Fold:
Amino acid sequence: MACLFCAIVAGETPAHRVLDTEHVVGFLDIRPVFKGHVLLVPREHHENLAAVPPALFAPLFEQVQRVSSGLLSALDAQGSLVALNNVVSQSVPHVHVHVVPRRRKDGLRGFFWPRTTYADDAEAEAYAERLRDALEIRR
Structure:
């Protein structure tokens, strides 16, 4: 079975990329909890957390930390939610970390994640551009 995230990493499936490093690719979730919700995936395919080699944790979570910090200024967020579903509730069987912008009284409670959508590709690309700018990544 083909992996959607591997296809995004390979450039075969379009995505609004936020970052692209040697080990990690970050892109906007197409069904964000809040606009600016980023998914960070290792370039290598690993289905779940147990399959990730220890050497990959540092590069992956360095980028998680970077995006979590960057979206504060890029999106005027007050904080972030960082989450990783492992097997259960993992909609794509490729390890991925959610970085979601948060604001006080934004309505998010517990682990119920209501989803939203972007009005169109132009709006999604505008969010991706703001994040790339905050991370100082140029296309």
Q: What stands out?
A: The first helix runs from residue 4 to 9. The chain has three helices and five strands. The chain has a mean pLDDT of 90. Residues 4-134 form a domain with the HIT family, subunit A fold (CATH 3.30.428.10).
